[in-house]
Each structure stands twice: as structure tokens, then as C-alpha cells.
Amino acid sequence: MTQQLHLQSTTELSNGVRMPWLGLGVFQVEEGAELVEAVKAAIRFGYRSVDTAAIYGNESGVGQGIREALSENGLSREDLFVTSKVWNADLGYESTLAAYETSLRKLGLDYLDLYLIHWPVAGKYKDAWRALEKLYKEGRVRAIGVSNFQVHHLEDLMAGAEAKPMVNQVEFHPLLSQKELRRYAAEQGIQLEAWSPLMQGRLLDHPVLKEIAARHGKSIAQVILRWDLQHGVVTIPKSTKESRIAENGSLFDFELSAGEMAEIDGLNRDERVGPDPDNFDF
């Protein structure tokens, strides 16, 4: 990861599809004008990736924002990388196929660039994965993957799968650096992607991060997101404020030193802000 990258730079997934390093996340953003304007602001600023999910309940607004942004910025659908996820209640073969159609309809799209299994619900994710493989083989989705899968979930899934997950989207931030999972994903050619990269704002006054940010004349958020990228982790910070969306995207004019990367790595506490994938109930 070098600072020659820019906001539309991409990583190549194992199947050759290119995925932007940075995207807009819309977790906990309700349907409505604020959501539509956030999507439009991100695309206007130069973002080319938007990440949503069925459970977020905002796919329709995301779709509206995408359509308006494409029209206003002279872009085509192929210029964007759109991700959604199948929710736990729909994890089954036929139910996952139906959930995909529902997401497409709400988004107003003909295909997704990436479709993920949202959580590794025991006894259910293998049937859902067969459905994703079918969608992928039929060309209905450009890439398929999982979210919140630990190493043992991935091993279990891949033991009987035709295709490896191309992406694993997980909680990742300086207090949860997922070292073992990162190593395994790299060995298997699975692209890691970070959700909650800023730990839902809990890291924005951390003294170590504050000091590193001051050295670079950057915000703590920018330092954390840059740390993600230099670890080869795709990241999707959430914001609805245009100024923050622009700030989060301004990561390509500085680089953290090896020493600074090690300083941030040293903050790891294996501390989660979200549920434990091995022990969740929803």
C-alpha cells in the first residue's frame, strides 16, 4: 500500500473483480433524505463503493441515492461497486435466493457487485453459500463473500464449497486487529474488509492516535483509516455528513511509517464493539 493510491484505487479479488479500497458504509442510517444525500455526496466526492445490507432497512434509499448520483455526475452503473448482505432469518438455499431478489428490487439494480452472508449462523450458512454460488455462476453477482466469519467458520464453509469466499467483512480497528484472521485470509486469497473501523467513534480521543495524527496534520479518523489501508484491508467508514465523508476519503496524501504502524498495532486488546461471531443471538 503506497501513497500513490487515490480514492478510486482498487484491489483485485481472487476472481479478478476489482473492488475499491474505500467505500461508504450506511449502517444505522435510516431511510430518508439524509441517507440519499450522503450517498450522493460520497459519489460526488469520488467514492465508488457503497455498502448496505438487508437488515439495515435502507436499501431503497441507497438505490435512490445511487440513481441520482449517476445521473448528476455522468457516471454509469458499471462505475460503482455495490454490496449488500443476506440476513440471518433468510439463511437457507431458496430463502437466500429470494432475499437476493428482494435486495435487488429495493436497490433498483440489475445486479450486485458483492453479496455477503451477514453472520455465520450455525447450521445455516452452508445452504446460503450454495445459493450465493448459484447466483455467482449465473452471473447475477460479480463476487460473493461472507461477513463476521472467523477462521474455523471459513474452514468449515470451504470444506464443502465450490468457490472460496472472495471477501470477509469483519469488525476491524486498532483495538481488534484480527491478526490471525488477517494471516489466514491472506493465505487463502480472501480480501479482508473492515466494518466499524473507527470503533463507532470510541477511538477518536485515544492519546496514541492523537499524537500520530498531530505529526501528520491529520485527524485521528484519517490515521485509523490509513492504518487499515496499509494493512491491505478494504474499509467502509460510515458518515452522513458531507464534510466527514470528504475527510474520510482524504487518505492518499500521507503515509504512516513502519514505526507508527507498529505503535497502532500495539493497541490491540481483542476488544469488540459488536457481537462475538462465536456467541451471538439474533
Automatic annotation (TrEMBL):
Pfam families: Aldo_ket_red. The active site is at Y56. SUPFAM superfamilies: NAD(P)-linked oxidoreductase (SSF51430). GO terms for molecular function: oxidoreductase activity, acting on the CH-OH group of donors, NAD or NADP as acceptor. Belongs to the aldo/keto reductase family. This is Aldo/keto reductase. Substrate binds at H118. Residues 23-268 form the NADP-dependent oxidoreductase domain. It comes from the Bacteria. Keywords: NADP, Oxidoreductase. It comes from Cohnella xylanilytica. InterPro entries: AKR, AKR5G, Aldo/ket_reductase_CS, NAD(P)_OxRdtase_dom_sf, NADP_OxRdtase_dom. The record marks K85 as: Lowers pKa of active site Tyr.
